[in-house]
Amino acid sequence: MSAFALLVIKLAASLLADRLFGEPRRWHPLVGFGNWAKTIEGQLRRPGDSHRRELALGLLAWLAAVAPWVGLALLLRSLHPQAHWAVDILLLYLALGGRSLAEHAEAIAAPLAAGNLPQARERVSWIVSRDTRALDEAGVARAATESVLENGNDAVFGALFWFLIGGGPAALLFRLANTLDAMWGYRNARYLAFGRIAARVDDLLNALPARLTALTYALLGRTRAALACWRSQAPAWDSPNAGPVMAAGAGALGVALGGAAIYHGQLEQRPPLGGGQAPDAGSIRAAVALVRRGILLWLSLAGLLAVILERAGA
User: Fold this and answer.
1) Checking CA distances to 126, which of 7, 205, 309, 311 falls within 20 to 30 Å?
2) What confidence tens digit (pLDDT) does each residue in 181-197 have?
3) CA atoms lying within 13 Å on the CB side of residue 285
4) Cα-atom radius of gyration of the chain, to the nearest Å?
5) What is the bridge-based pairing of β-strands 266-274 and 256-263?
6) CA distance 134 to 137
7) Which pLDDT tens digit goes with each residue over 70-108?
8) Taking 60 as the threshold, does the pLDDT of residue 33 lie above it?
9) Distance between CA 112 and CA 279 in Å, rounded?
């Protein structure tokens, strides 16, 4: 059996585990990693550091946060000829967040559909960084739908892509880099220099997966509208990777996303995404369904490629 076929089997096992069990409810490794990264930042940074020193410390902090765990994964994988099975399946399972994403989305969609706007506002605040206290129904649905589409890449397809490239350690590297970007990749006074490496590495690792995610959304939704939105709207978005993902996703769903949002007390006028009707609870659920169909498509295509490679090598 080819190495790629083995990866596809492991990928299927990890997806099944994520669907059955979801993320660990207690002692999630990514929570522990976040605390580890905070400790490193606290130990390295000092008030008054120069811009150049902040850049250097940001690189050192990134390496100190990520390298030990990727190195440990590689070591565990090499301890026994069959150790790669357990290590790869476990690492991809922990890197995936498909079921968790769907559960968070439904926890917003259900009260929104029932007319319980305060509860929907509270639950959407768990997954977005914008101020949700004054959001109307469309605003809650917009925030949740955008989060599902973007995290479809960050918590699902990006991990699947890097797993197929380099197994469990590569999926781990992607997920840890993505976590550090979420912690340090802000363009503000505190992280503009220190977090630059975290932001750039995440941009680099996401460059191809994000566009494959956007293509996945386009193929499984309103294809022509999705591709048009990707082409015309994504360049105006600040993030070079989130732009294609969310523009294509919004076009695929036929909903209008983007627009004004309040972050840390400041009103930001964001470019429009997609087009058509205002989002509602159904849009949130449609975004989840789009991600789920994408998972099936990726698994099917990976399996087909494995069969082709097997026959070509026979």
Assistant:
1) 205
2) 999 988 888 888 999 99
3) 10
4) 20
5) antiparallel
6) 10
7) 999 999 999 999 999 999 999 999 999 999 999 999 999
8) yes
9) 11
Contacts of 209 (CB under 8 A, 6+ apart): 153, 157, 158, 161, 162, 174
* Residue 293 CB neighbours (<10 A): 15
* CA distances for 122 relative to 17, 113, 168, angstroms: 29, 15, 35
- pTM score of the predicted model: 0.94
Q: In whole angstroms, give the CA distance from residue 159 to residue 197.
A: 20
**Residue 223: exposed, middle, or buried by beta-carbon count in 10 A (0-12, 13-18, 19+)?**
middle
3-state SS, the chain, equals CCHHHHHHHHHHHHHHHHHHHCCCCCCCHHHHHHHHHHHHHHHHCCCCCCHHHHHHHHHHHHHHHHHHHHHHHHHHHHCCCCHHHHHHHHHHHHHCCHHHHHHHHHHHHHHHHCCCHHHHHHHHCCCCCCCCCCCCHHHHHHHHHHHHHHHHHHHHHHHHHHHHHHHHHHHHHHHHHHHHHHHHCCCCCCCCCCCHHHHHHHHHHHHHHHHHHHHHHHHHCCHHHHHHHHHHHHHHCCCCCHHHHHHHHHHHHCEEEEEEEEECCEEEEEEEEECCECCCHHHHHHHHHHHHHHHHHHHHHHHHHHHHHHHHHC
Q: How many angstroms separate the CA atoms of 282 and 140, rounded?
A: 12
**240 within 8 A of 272, measured Cβ to Cβ:** no
Structure tokens at 174: 């992607």
> Which tokens sit at 149?
């589409």
Q: Residue 41 and residue 153: Cα distance in Å, rounded?
A: 27
What pLDDT, on a 0 to 100 scale, did the predictor assign at position 40? 95
